[in-house]
């Protein structure tokens, strides 16, 4: 059955020239799993062809293995510098012929040099309604500020911190008595809906960029 599904996906790629999607993840890979499920349903407009991580024991790598996706670990301890680590990741992504790179809980900020060299769209999802609450602990920032609405944002990655052009957003309520954990869980549910959809728009050529303005076609 699994081989049959792969055959169908391969045929569909040949017919529709589906984009080759790579993912970088550092941890449990719940957003990766949402992407895998959308891919299996034929809803991603692309093929998941590579999953990389900076942690050898990341659950994301196990999810990739179970889905039959080529995967690799690039822990910093294997390299003499951060620059050498990024070079190895970039070389591997090119070997896999990745055309879109998706960050799914990748906990390192990619360098300016990496982003300049990769020359393909790089996407990220952030647990706030950007430009509010950039950086780490966005959910805690939202609670400390007292906002009534939070959410998540899919954006193109640029050289700033969570500052790239916004592709899509989904709002979620901040409820009385929310903790960082409860708000994070509610936002994560929205991420699992929004990220595959937004990746599918980009992979399917349904996004037009004009500077910072991103329009869904």
TrEMBL record:
Residues 19-199 form the Formyl transferase N-terminal domain. Pathway: Purine metabolism; IMP biosynthesis via de novo pathway; N(2)-formyl-N(1)-(5-phospho-D-ribosyl)glycinamide from N(1)-(5-phospho-D-ribosyl)glycinamide (10-formyl THF route): step 1/1. GO terms for molecular function: phosphoribosylglycinamide formyltransferase activity. This is Phosphoribosylglycinamide formyltransferase. Belongs to the GART family. N(1)-(5-phospho-beta-D-ribosyl)glycinamide binds at residues 29-31. One of its GO terms (biological process) is 'de novo' IMP biosynthetic process. (6R)-10-formyltetrahydrofolate binds at residues 82, 124. The record marks 162 as: Raises pKa of active site His. It comes from the Bacteria. Keywords: Purine biosynthesis, Transferase. The gene is purN. The active site is at residue 126. Its EC number is 2.1.2.2. PROSITE patterns: GART. GO terms for cellular component: cytoplasm. CDD domains: FMT_core_GART (cd08645). Catalyzes the transfer of a formyl group from 10-formyltetrahydrofolate to 5-phospho-ribosyl-glycinamide (GAR), producing 5-phospho-ribosyl-N-formylglycinamide (FGAR) and tetrahydrofolate. It catalyses: N(1)-(5-phospho-beta-D-ribosyl)glycinamide + (6R)-10-formyltetrahydrofolate = N(2)-formyl-N(1)-(5-phospho-beta-D-ribosyl)glycinamide + (6S)-5,6,7,8-tetrahydrofolate + H(+).
